[in-house]
Design brief:
The structure holds two protein chains of two kinds. Chain A is an alpha/beta fold. Chain A folds into two domains: 314 residues, no CATH class; 107 residues, no CATH class. In chain A, the strands form two sheets. In chain A, strands 3-4-5-2-1-6-11-8-12-7 form a ten-stranded mixed β-sheet, with helices on both faces. The relative contact order of chain A is 0.13. The N and C termini of chain B lie far apart (72 Å). In chain B, helix 17 packs antiparallel against helix 18. Chain B contains 20 helices and no strands. Chain B is extended. The chains are: A alpha/beta, B mainly alpha. At the A-B interface, helix 1, helix 6, helix 13 and helix 14 of A face helix 1, helix 6, helix 8, helix 10 and helix 12 of B.
């Protein structure tokens, strides 16, 4: 009996080692591909400035859709940043999704909202009743829709979709700040290749503790909170390496809900965002690609590797756990819904590369990590684990994780170097090491819980993240007037 | 098990060494960047007055300090060139030619590295006249998509109307050119490109036809009206061509198009085409369209209903009067009418948004 148990544990250990090696090899390839792309863009950008784009009559109008639930902490800054975007033709549609705080009152007072008859442009199904529609009387192209919340962001976005008037819709989180040229940057692919591009997204960065002024990030700074610092490294790795490389392979699955641009007609054509999905952003991208590929219509999902959107990330373990559980639950839902695409050559790189990767490494990753930890404990109990072996394996895992994070931060430093203070870069490097101790294990645990929730078909629950608002830059001291 | 453990141990050491190397490179890179930035700021401050003296200089031969200036000088000149016209532009182009910048770029068009070809095309577009058109046209068939796009933009900037036909042909060639970039390049060429666009509208492939219609509308080309009407009436026209033709007729604004557009609004299968027709009727503002637009308020598509209501609001007293009557009614038509009237009431205050 003991011999059988030992054989099983050894077999599991070898299988896990193989899994980790394949994953690390893929991550290394992503790092190399990301590094190569960044190095190429340093020699030649491939496109010119945004002046031509701004002035071009071919640049289509954009409706920026913002779902907001209890966002009084930052809604005015966010609106100020969004309405101040450099773009020739835009409107902002803010959906007050059953806020219980002063979100609506603040916006109403600032923009002199006046109730109007809704101007419907689509009839995507929505669950929460629309209470009223308002427009700014300050000259700003702002529409505010008040609705009953059903606890889902997708429902609020679908309402916004029904009143959006421009050919492109940009979905933005209410806790996000866009850089002044952000919209021009992500709209560029639509202007240049309108026949093929159906969606585009940009880089998202953490805004916690960055200095802002009326919704503009004036100095990116790293938070003193280590949880936020680790997420800053995560975001860099995900956006600078992961998505850039997936987009290059024409296999981009995720455009972040915090900032993504889509063709409105196509989003309406597929029935809007999936009301029950907890990963509605990724779900929309996959649905669009499935729909268009099945119809044999051209399509391209583009990632713009520029730092364009700043978003608040959780500052406590509890909120982070809820967020990541929800993401994992949403990923499970997505993979189940689109299971026929997985490994199916009919869907090209998405079917053959991206979806299998997400299934094996993103969805099942936490299972493997938890089984791995259990296997280590069992090996120790059975006397199969020598301290030396354990240390070497732990060292290898740490070294690899640290190298990946360091390479990401190096690419950031060589390309965009948004963190001007050396201590911020050093803190990022330290966070890249610390991430492997505690954070990763916690992350695996909550992701596993999310996966279980997806498998057991638990009712999707959207939980709002508590907002801290943005850190305002101190006023410039007044120049003393000589007497 | 000892061999894999040893391998893992060595691999860990190797990874640590690589990490340290990356860290060292980062530190060095950081220092070098700071030094370079400071140096560049200083050099730019020194060289900018020299560039400005060139603008007033009528001497054909550049001064010795211009010939001897560092490469940063070329960057300053290239930054300035797109905003200049006439003799100032000629003066800077002469300087770039004298310093060998244009010859080097022309040579780089045949380079093996895609980024060199692309960068050279961009530079020639910003700096050169028409003498490199043929080379840039050849680059429209480059295997690299970014290089093809750079050549397309460059051809627009050179202002050589001979590039119009190859650009339009590039839309349907393999590998093709992105429609938006070709559109911007053709707009850069200006009104001299109109004959080529009119040809493409009548004889071009569907993609070229749609783009030509769109651009002719942006130019407000009255002479293209018959061809645009024919495109709209032609049952074999594609939806993008019809949408573009309707949009162009709206921009041109001749009431002679009202009949064709109301016909399209009533009979077109696709909501996007009907919406384009409604938008165009609103732009033209011909009261003859009121009946068709009123009927459009009962369209199955909310987008078309909203466009029809906006168009009625744009037509003037007749259209607005009809909207007021309809706004009393219940149902989608009444809602669309009330929404358009509400927008109209707020319109004087709305500074950034363009109706329709």
């Amino acid at each position: 009996m003991r011999e059988t148990a030992e054989d099983v544990v050894l077999a599991v250990n070898w299988a896990l080692l193989g899994y980790v090696l394949v994953l690390d090899l893929i991550m290394l390839l992503l790092v190399l591909a990301g590094g190569r792309r960044v190095s190429a863009s340093r020699r030649w950008q491939g496109a010119e400035g945004h002046r031509e784009l701004f002035a071009s009559p071919l640049t289509p109008g954009v409706s920026v859709l913002v779902p907001a639930h209890d966002e009084e902490a930052g809604v005015l800054d966010m609106l100020s940043a969004t309405l101040g975007l450099r773009y020739p033709l835009l409107e902002v549609v803010l959906v007050d999704d059953g806020s219980t705080d002063r979100t609506f009152e603040l916006v109403a007072a600032r923009y002199g909202l006046r109730e109007v008859t809704p101007r419907w442009t689509a009839d995507v199904a929505v669950e929460g009743e629309v209470l009223s529609v308002h427009q700014a009387t300050t000259g700003d192209p702002l529409t505010v829709v008040r609705k009953v919340s059903v606890g889902r962001r997708s429902d609020a976005l679908n309402v916004a979709l029904n009143v959006a008037r421009h050919p492109l819709v940009c979905m933005v989180d209410a806790d996000s700040l866009l850089e002044p040229d952000a919209l021009l940057q992500v709209a560029r692919p639509f202007v240049e290749d309108p026949d093929n591009v159906v969606a585009s997204g940009g880089v998202i960065r953490t805004v916690n503790s960055a200095l802002t002024d009326r919704g503009t990030v004036v100095e990116p700074r790293l938070s003193r909170n280590w949880l936020v610092r680790i997420q800053a490294v995560e975001y860099l790795r995900s956006f600078l390496l992961g998505r850039t490389s997936w987009a290059d392979a024409n296999a981009l699955l995720v455009i972040s809900g915090a900032f993504g641009l889509f063709r409105r007609d196509l989003v309406v054509e597929v029935g809007g965002l999936d009301a029950l999905s907890l990963a509605e952003d990724a779900e929309l991208v996959v649905t669009l690609q499935e729909h268009l590929r099945r119809a044999g219509r051209p399509h391209r999902v583009v990632f713009v590797p520029e730092p364009v959107c700043w978003t608040e990330v959780p500052e406590t373990w509890q909120v982070l756990g809820r967020q990541r559980k929800r993401w994992s639950h949403g990923l499970g839902q997505l993979l189940w819904k689109h299971k026929r695409m997985i490994g199916n050559p009919r869907y090209g790189a998405i079917g053959l590369l991206a979806l299998p990767f997400f299934l094996v490494f993103e969805c099942l990753g936490p299972v493997v990590e938890v089984v791995g930890l259990g296997s280590v404990v069992l090996s120790a109990v059975l006397g199969l684990l020598s301290p030396g072996t354990a240390l070497v394996m732990l060292g290898l895992s740490l070294a690899l994780g640290t190298l990946l994070s360091t390479a990401t931060i190096a690419i950031e430093e060589f390309s965009y170097h948004r963190y001007g203070r050396a201590r911020d870069v050093l803190a990022l490097l330290a966070a890249g090491v610390l991430e492997n101790i505690g954070f990763r294990q916690f992350h695996s645990w909550v992701r596993l819980r999310g996966l279980v929730a997806a498998i057991t078909r638990q009712k999707p629950v959207w939980t709002a993240m508590p907002r801290t608002g943005f850190t305002t830059a101190p006023e410039e001291p007044a120049v003393p007037v000589p007497a | 098990m000892t061999v894999p453990i040893a391998v893992a141990g060595y691999a860990s050491l190797l990874l640590v060494a690589v990490t340290l190397l990356v860290l060292a490179a980062m530190g060095l890179g950081h220092r070098r960047r700071l030094r370079r930035e400071q140096h560049e700021v200083r050099r730019r401050a020194e060289l900018t007055p020299l560039v400005h003296t060139l603008l007033d200089d009528e001497d054909e031969r550049p001064a010795p300090e211009v010939t001897a200036a560092p490469a940063l000088f070329d960057e300053l000149v290239l930054d300035l060139l797109p905003s200049l016209r006439g003799s100032d532009r000629d003066a800077l182009q002469r300087v770039l030619a004298t310093r060998g910048v244009l010859d080097r770029a022309a040579r780089d068009l045949g380079s093996r590295a895609a980024w060199r070809r692309g960068r050279a095309a961009t530079l020639l577009g910003s700096a050169a006249g028409t003498e490199h058109t043929a080379a840039l046209v050849r680059l429209l068939a480059d295997p690299d998509a970014d290089v093809r796009s750079a050549a397309t933009r460059a051809l627009g900037k050179t202002g050589d109307v001979a590039a119009a036909e190859p650009l339009l042909a590039g839309l349907t060639a393999a590998p093709g050119l992105p429609r938006g970039i070709v559109g911007m390049a053709l707009l850069d060429l200006g009104t001299p490109a109109l004959p080529a666009l009119r040809d493409a509208l009548t004889t071009g492939a569907p993609t070229a036809q749609a783009l030509a219609a769109e651009l002719l509308g942006m130019h407000g080309d009255l002479a293209a009206t018959p061809a645009l009407l024919a495109t709209l009436a032609d049952r074999s026209s594609t939806a993008p061509s019809c949408i573009a033709a309707a949009g162009a007729l709206g921009r041109i604004g001749l009431p002679t198009a009202t009949g064709a557009l109301t016909g399209t609004l009533t009979t077109a299968q696709l909501p996007a085409v009907r919406r384009a027709a409604a938008d165009a009727l609103g732009r033209i503002g011909d009261p003859e369209a009121v009946v068709a637009l009123t009927a459009g308020l009962a369209d199955a598509s909310p987008d078309v209903r909203a466009a029809c209501a906006d168009a009625l609001a744009a037509i003037g007293d007749e259209g607005r009067g009809r909207l007021r009557v309809l706004s009393i009614a219940a149902g989608p038509a009444g809602t669309a009418a009330r929404a358009a009237l509400d927008v109209l009431a707020l319109a004087p205050r709305r500074t950034r948004e363009v109706l329709g």
